Amino acid sequence: MAGTYARETELLVIGGGPGGYMAAIRAGQLGKKVLLIERDELGGECLNRGCIPSKALLHAGALFHEVRTLGPEIGVVAGSLAFDMAKAQASKQALVAKERQGVALLLKSAGVQVLKGSARFTGPRSAEYIAPDDGRERIDFGDAVIATGGVPLVLPGFEPDGRQVLTATDLLDLKQLPKSLLVLGGGVSGCELGEFCAQAGVAVTIVELLPQLLPGLDPDLARELTGAFERLGIAVRTGHRATGVRRDAEGVVLGVTAPDGAASELRAEQLFLTIGKRAATKELGLGEAGVEADPRTGAVRVDDQQRTNVPHIFAVGDVGRLPMLAHKAYREGIVAAEVIAGRTTRYNFQVIPSVVFTTPEIASVGLTLAEATSGGYAAAREARFPYAALGRAHAYHATQGFLKVVGDDASGLFLGLHAVGRSSGEFAAEAALAIEMGATVRDVAQTIHPHPTFSELVQEAALLWLHEPMHVAQRRREVARRP
User: Fold this and answer.
1) What angle do CA 185, 192, 406 make, to 5 degrees?
2) C-alpha distance from residue 243 to each of 62, 207, 238, 261, 428 (Å)
3) What is the pLDDT of residue 475?
4) Model pLDDT, residue 211
């Protein structure tokens, strides 16, 4: 492509990740002429470097680990068993390519034009498109959606090199696993990919600055996961500050300071750096468009219709409000598209479900007991039902974990669900719907759940909250005292 060209579009979408492609598809469905520009691959980080590829590898690692450890106990006896990272990568790449092709077909079916390359605002109603061959084109637009996602945070002195210090993208593309791995950061990515490596036979140590894994999560869930990790052989170092990294021919040496101030060094072949992300807005030319962004985080402030301070420019996904979750970005993209098409849609939700795909899996929806109490629910309380009391859990040798229901005694409202255990992420949508619909704990308890399923945990925990448990024992005199 050579020279300078110009074109017009009703809607320009910059970024083809979950928020961007959903905005483009929905706007196309509603009759808008849409142009989407993506620098790398359709699907963004979630499809190409995050949610989908990580789950593919997690599934492979969990299957290998389960056959190796649980298999003989239940009659699954394998001969020679090994984890082939190259084959796991090939399977993962095939999955990602297929999903990416699906996104492309959906965009085509909605009439969306897709260009590969980057874009930068040159004014409130114009942008410059830069093609892979450095050709330039002026884009004049009526509305725009910023959906450029996030980029990993990097600590000075810990800069990734793709060989010894890795990002999540580097780790997900490894053709051969190291014998040992240090994970700096005990958030979602650190826990999920650290567990995958451990299940595949890598000696893993997770170092987290804050007092627990998955900071911000219900501490009970974090403690359960920490115990599971330690049984898997992962060394967990919470409350430890990284002071520096040294690279040599044998790998990396990480300096750390323990909570008591004691200094030590940890050695491994590689270091995985995963300490969070910031909005990828630095090169967008926001100033030329008049769009305001936080100078520290790069995040763009949006209202409940996804509008920035420039009313015809919208932002969705990781570039805007927290949390940085694909399913939140999906909804934001739809809201932006419908507003652009003239509908009165708003981003207005009580809860955003959160799931961590470790073993055991973790789901969190709505208020914890501490949040409910501090938020004005003086009569809030919780009930915890164990996996060990569930028939399906025993059948699947998955008795570790529990599910907590948080409710309000004064109104009976169902306020939250927090679970750690097999398939707990599958309960999140039911809990979210219950909260959005204003359901009571009794509503949930009286909803028939199929047997035998893990979803019975939700009903059983609700019954326990009501002091009417059916599958855990309660003294008869206690029952008699209840209304």
Assistant:
1) 95
2) 33, 12, 14, 12, 38
3) 60
4) 97
141 and 283 together in one domain = yes
The set of catalytic residues is 451
Number of domains the chain is built from: 3
Q: Which amino acid is at 91?
A: S
Of 315, 340, 365, the residue that ends a domain is 340
In a domain, 447, yes or no: yes
Domain end, chosen from 275, 293, 317, is at: 275
Total-model pTM: 0.93
Please say whether the beta carbons of 228 and 69 come within 8 A.
no
pLDDT of the residue at 1: 42
Which pLDDT score, from 0 to 100, does residue 277 have? 94
Return d(Cα 232, Cα 227) in angstroms, integer: 9
**Residues 6 or more apart whose Cβ sits within 8 Å of residue 436:** 349, 350, 351
Copy the structure tokens of residue 250. 């044998």
Separation of alpha carbons 478 and 480, rounded Å: 5
Q: Output the pLDDT for position 80.
A: 87
Q: Mean pLDDT per 10-residue run, the chain (483 residues)?
A: 74 98 98 97 95 96 95 90 95 97 98 98 97 95 98 93 96 96 97 98 98 96 98 98 96 97 97 96 96 95 98 98 96 98 95 97 98 97 97 96 98 98 97 98 98 97 96 64 48
* pLDDT attached to residue 368: 97
If we measure between CA atoms, which residue out of 229, 270, 233 comes closest to residue 250?
270
The CATH number that applies at residue 108 is 3.50.50.60
Strand partners, 384: 404
Q: Give first-to-last CA distance, the chain, whole Å.
A: 77
Q: Is residue 348 part of a domain?
A: no
Token match 């999140």: residue? 428
Residue 380 and residue 476 share a domain: yes
pLDDT at residue 124, as a whole number? 97
